[in-house]
Amino acid sequence: MARSVDAVLFDIDETLVDLQAAMGTTLQAVSAEDLAHFTAADWDAYTSLFAADPQGHYDAYLAGHLSFADQRVLRLQHARERAGLAPLDSDAARAWNDAYEQILPRHFCAFDDVVPLLDALDERGIAYGAVSNNVHDYQRAKLDAAGLERLRVLVGIDTVGAAKPDPAIFHEGARLVGSLPARTAYVGDNLIVDAIGAHDAGLTGVWLDREDNPSPVRGDNTAVPAGVFTVGTLMEVLGLL
């Protein structure tokens, strides 16, 4: 059922920016010699595991238990272990992370449906912005690298000292786009953290479950509750406004 809103807020990674594709390209560039024996299927499995982070290292970063670099290296070490590879020693891991950080931003790209949706929102006079579970400046650079400078409102975990699904971070996004939570939709690829989190914070929660590029954090084992909407593409969001 359509619900009128004044603003739309977006998650960034796997919603606006195809981070998993950028990760995959970067992983291959950084480790091409070390993993020269990998087949295409090996690379897909390796990238998917690195992106999905089943051991929760990124959550540990959000909780303040790990640095951003440490969570990335731990995810790498787990992917290497599952692939039957020896772990990197501390010096090699540091060099790997430095190379990864330099290469990754070159491959940030927006999904094909992002600009058409933003154009449509502009035509309708609906404000928009982004709320992300990473720090503001890092995500600001990512949006700009992906050609999404037009998203001027951006709330990071350092903006209010909270991470999704804490209501405070959603409410700050609504405030900055000039809307009330009840008049704001939030769209993200993580069912629990994004869609259900936004819904519980009083926004309209929308789960982006891309049909052709499923997120590594789909939330398959969680039922979609009443009041949370599901779309397969960003353009389907227009039908909810």
Automatic annotation (TrEMBL):
One example GO MF annotation: hydrolase activity
A Pfam family reported for this protein in Swiss-Prot or TrEMBL: Hydrolase
Cofactor requirements of the protein: Mg(2+)
Matching InterPro entries: HAD-like_hydrolase, HAD-like_sf, HAD-SF_hydro_IA, HAD_sf
GO biological process: small molecule metabolic process
Keywords tagged on the record: Hydrolase, Magnesium
PANTHER family named among the record's database cross-references: N-ACYLNEURAMINATE-9-PHOSPHATASE
Protein name, entry field: HAD family hydrolase
